[in-house]
Automatic annotation (TrEMBL):
Identification of the protein by name: F-box domain-containing protein
Database matches in SUPFAM superfamilies: F-box domain
InterPro entries recorded: F-box-like_dom_sf, F-box_dom
Domain F-box positions: 1-49
Source organism of the structure: Puccinia graminis f. sp. tritici
Compositional bias annotation for Acidic residues: 290-306
Sequence segments annotated as region (Disordered): 287-309
Top-rank lineage group of the source organism: Eukaryota
Length: 538
């Protein structure tokens, strides 16, 4: 029956099929093989199949350049992409990494990505990430998402894949992630895995294995990792300058992904624990309220009276729970659940007691529960974990900026990381305007720098500060018998908010020329000029 169908009908059927299904069909039917792999129809069909699974890499000039110049983009010639082979490479990666059998993943990796080619797997993952974008919002699709990000979510949410790829177990046969090997700054595989881990966020292995925190702390609090030749930051050290050479090149600024990974793990695990503590507070508050309600009902029953009406008064705002410092949890996990309790330090006997809250789902949403500012990032996907979440609550980017979803990959994060450590501000709610402005500003109508803020600096950020006791820090770095590890040691933390405002783009602000931007900290991209900003801390 299919072999007698018009070509248009066949193509429509093929376009609604998975590439794996088409490959199976082509093996059992000659007509299907000719239609699927024939030269007359091959690239046209497979390009459409590619766009069913991935964002269009040719629609954006910058992304088009990245895609066409990448060695993993297979081309028939300089101008035409071989869509069949390019899609086949990605679907093969999907088939390798989506199985739940760790041994099978390892065997498939050995077959398709042997030792000398293993780095290509990371290159392909980063190519998919770098070419991710979403379509413009429309009435039918007000919150478009990226197909590339959905593809990566499907791959990297698999625990065996996290173990083999994010934690760099790779083709090895050990039973633990090779955290200890992350000290190598120059191994490209170590750097690639650390970069992917930093972008992705926390995994179940990070949370369940105490040694993870210990190794991350040991890297973060080792003073030898902070020197002038690496700008006291997570950068690969530059060679020490030769005093006998007068004119030396300016030092480079290459990211040390293993060290940045350690820093992100320390902060991410703190945020995870803060989130868990907040959940415990909310759960305890709910249990206390239910117990109080049951006591009231029981007392009313014993007195042969009707149960009191304890429904929520929607006009009443519950008092904030007096906690210092305010525990942090992802905004969409706590905005509906708070403890209704008077602050004992501010209680006024003349005031009426607050309305008893019994139905948690009817609690009014306050922009700043528990002393926490408005959501820095509306994380999607967290609703799968807990019953208490905030639905469709927008996040802010800057003045008068509102968005409900965040379509950019790194800022959007991936599903398993969203509730834990990915707290970047939504920079890419829409593409920034090109700099410099085509119409210069004037004293009466200055240029709106938020429109050109390509990095999303302006707006509200979360700042997390963690530190060891000074005596322990000194002992760890300078003592003759330093502690072997830091996983069981206490660590302090502070959570605060920053309100940042862009004051200049490109050139330093007119009132401050004392902070020139070193060449090594600048990008070579014309559309990525330096951004100067100021802010206030709460």
């Amino acid at each position: 029956m299919l072999d007698s169908s018009p070509p248009e009908i066949l193509d429509r059927i093929f376009l609604h099929s998975d590439p794996i299904e088409l490959a199976s069909l082509a093996r059992v039917a000659r007509f299907a093989h000719e239609r699927i792999y024939g030269q007359n129809n091959q690239q046209h069909l497979w390009q459409k199949l590619f766009l069913n699974h991935f964002d269009d890499p040719l629609s954006n000039p910058r992304i088009r350049s990245i895609f066409l110049q990448h060695p993993l983009t297979i081309k028939q010639n300089e101008q035409h992409v071989d869509w069949l082979k390019t899609l086949t490479t990605r679907i093969t990666l999907r088939q390798i990494l989506t199985t739940a059998d760790d041994a099978l993943i390892r065997d498939r990796l050995i077959k398709h990505y042997p030792d000398h080619r293993f780095h290509q797997l990371y290159d392909l993952l980063f190519l998919i990430l770098d070419t991710a974008h979403s379509s413009s919002p429309s009435p039918l699709n007000p919150n478009p998402t990226s197909l590339n990000i959905s593809f990566l979510e499907n791959l990297l949410s698999n625990p065996p894949t996290q173990f083999r790829i994010i934690h760099f177990a790779g083709l090895n046969h050990q039973h633990n992630p090779i955290y200890a090997h992350r000290a190598s700054l120059y191994d490209p595989l170590v750097a690639a895995a650390a970069k992917l881990h930093t972008i992705y966020g926390l995994t179940s292995l990070d949370i369940d294995r105490p040694r993870t925190r210990g190794i991350a702390r040991e890297s973060s609090y080792s003073i030898r990792n902070y020197k002038p030749n690496n700008f006291y930051g997570p950068f690969i050290p530059n060679p020490d300058p030769d005093p006998d050479v007068p004119d030396q090149p300016e030092p480079t600024c290459r990211v040390s992904w293993p060290h940045l990974e350690a820093l992100s793990l320390v902060v991410g695990l703190h945020l995870y624990m803060l989130r868990r503590e907040t959940q415990d507070i909310l759960a305890a508050a709910k249990d206390e309220q239910e117990a109080a309600d049951n006591d009231q009902i029981e007392a009313a029953t014993n007195d042969e009276q009707e149960p009191p009406n304890v429904m929520v008064n929607p006009d009443m705002q519950p008092q904030r729970h007096n906690i210092h410092p305010a525990p942090f949890a992802m905004p969409n996990l706590i905005l509906r659940h708070r403890r209704a309790q008077l602050d004992p330090n501010q209680t006024n006997n003349d005031q009426e007691p607050p309305t008893i809250m019994t139905n948690v789902d009817e609690l009014p949403v306050d922009p700043a529960p528990l002393g926490i500012p408005y959501p820095i990032l509306q994380h999607q996907g967290a609703e799968d974990e807990l019953d208490h979440e905030l639905e469709n609550e927008p996040a802010r980017r800057g003045p008068d900026r509102v968005l409900a979803q965040i379509p950019w990959p790194i800022l959007n994060s991936l599903r398993s990381a969203r509730p834990f450590s990915q707290l970047m501000h939504p920079a890419y709610d829409h593409p920034p305007l090109p700099w410099p402005p085509t119409i210069p500003g004037s004293p009466t109508r200055p240029v709106d720098l938020n429109q050109y803020d390509w990095a999303g600096v302006g707006g509200q950020w979360l700042r997390v500060v963690t530190f060891l006791d000074y005596r322990l820090l000194y002992e760890f770095n300078f003592d003759q018998n330093p502690p072997g590890n830091l996983e069981q040691r206490d660590e302090a933390r502070r959570v605060m908010t920053l309100d940042l405002k862009v004051v200049s783009i490109g050139d330093p602000p007119e009132d401050d020329h004392t902070h020139p931007v070193p060449l090594c900290l600048r990008t070579d991209l014309i559309d990525r000029p330096p951004i100067f900003f100021r802010g206030t801390l709460e």
